Each structure stands twice: as C-alpha cells, then as structure tokens.
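Please review this one.

:::
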Amino acid sequence: MRLFLLTALTMTAFAANYVLNRAGVATAGMSPLDFGVVRLVSGAVALAVIVAWQGRGFALGGSGRVIAVGSLLAYIFGFSVAYRGLDAGLGALLLFGVVQITMFGGALLAREDVPLNRWVGAAVATTGLVWLLWPGETTLAPWGAAGAMAVAGVGWGVYSLQGRLERDATQATAMNFCLAAPVALIAWLFWGGGAMPATGVALAIVSGVITSGLGYALWYAILPDLGAARAGVAQLSVPVIAMAGGMVFLAEPMTWTFVGAAGLVIAGVLISMRRSV
C-alpha cells in the first residue's frame, strides 16, 4: 500500500507539471522553451540547497550521470519543441506511448521478470489512453514535432531506467538538474529570450522546485521497488490526472469519453501494480 500511495503521489506531481506548463504557456503567455529553462534552473537551485543542507555531497557519478543528464535534457527540450507543432492530446499519446515502449524494452533487456498481469495492465491502460487521446480526422502531426516528442519519450524512459541504479535518489536528482541547468541556459541564450511574465515565471518555479525537483527525487526513490515495467504502466495515468487537474483548476470541460477512458487507464494501472500474476 505504501508503494502504491507514493506512486500515486509521484504521478500527481508529474501531472501537475503539465497543468502548470499549460497555465504558464497558454494563460500567462510564456514560451515553452523559456518555461522549461526556468523550471530546470529553479529545480537545480532548490535541490542543490537541500543536498548541501543535508551534507550529502555532490558526486558526479561517472558514465551513469552522463546518461541521466543527457536523457533529462532530451526530455525537457524535446517536449518544449514538440508542443510548438503538436496538439496536446496527440503529443501526450506519442510521449507516453514511446515511454511505455522504452521502459518495457529496458525491462526485457535487463531480464527483469515481467509477469502476465503487467502485460494485461499495460494493454488495458494503453487502450484507455488511446481512446482518450486519439486525434480527430483534422489533426495533423508534423514529422518534426512528432520526432521531437519521440525523442522526449525515449529521453524520459532512459532517465527513469537509470534511476533504478541510483543509491541516493535526492543526491542523484540534484546532480542531474545541476549539470543539466548550464546546458539549458546556453540553449536559452541561443533560442530563448521571449517574454517573461511574472505569473509564468512563478508557475515555472513552482514546477521546477516542487513538482519536478522533489517529484523526480521521489520517482528515483521508488523506482527500484517498482521495476521498469510497473513504472512504465503507472505513468500512463499522468495524462488522465493532468486532464482532471485541468478540469478542476483551468475550467476545462468534462466528457463521458474522459470518464470511460480514465476508468480503463486506472484499471490497467491497478492490475499492473498487483504483485501476484
């Protein structure tokens, strides 16, 4: 039960990132790239302060750290670039579909035991997500934007797989953010520099410090117990939680399609979380 509750809390933090991102970009008028950079830098500062205060030290971590930082940057910037040309629903479907494939692939390569209920849960949850997010006939998916979202999905999948190997979740997350932040700032100097409305910056800081920084640290902490396959299925709930958050906080409409599809996704996640086959 404890693992389930921590997983639910982590998925809620991930979903909150999407609500905060939509509010900062669509409502406050901040560009996706600028929002992502502020989010990454603020998370790095907060995590560095926490690690320094706790006396954990700042270990580089070798080649594993390079993989984690590179995949985090691929996710942050792939996500930002993709949403300039993709419908939000189609983008989420592509992102989490690729994450699912990446993490199940990682589980199989690592010879992780993937019992039948994981496969069944993944199939049920994916069906619900496709039902919820499948684009209409008029929705176009530019190849460049779709490719960028695929890169983001692989990036987040690899970042999550790497998290299973970390011994200190908070320190590892802090180092990932601290090493990725300077790269993000350099990219911002070349391609960013848009409007920085106070509301958008505030939302990006909340996203960076709380739902990204602390949320990602919690994710790294529970990943060894979850395993790659269950972690992949659990993340299929994020778009559903994000849409529910949009209905509550952004006054977005609720539909019967959402209710039915959300039920399927939640059922699939619950099936996959069971320890028995």
